[in-house]
Amino acid sequence: MNKLATSLIALAAFAGGAHAADLPRRAAPPVFAPVPVFTWTGFYLGVNAGYAFEGRTSFRTFNDATPGASALGVPGSRPPLATARTEGVTAGGQVGYNYQFTPGSGVVVGIEADAAYTDLVGGTAVILTNPANGVARLSTFRSQLDFLGTVRGRIGYAFDRVLVYGTGGLAYGDLRTATVFYQGTAVDTPLNYVGARSNIDLGYAVGGGIEYALPTDSFLNVFRSSAVTVKVEALYYDLGSRNVPVASIGVPGTVGAYGGQVSTDGVLARAGLNFKFGTF
Question: Global pTM?
Answer without folding.
Answer: 0.80
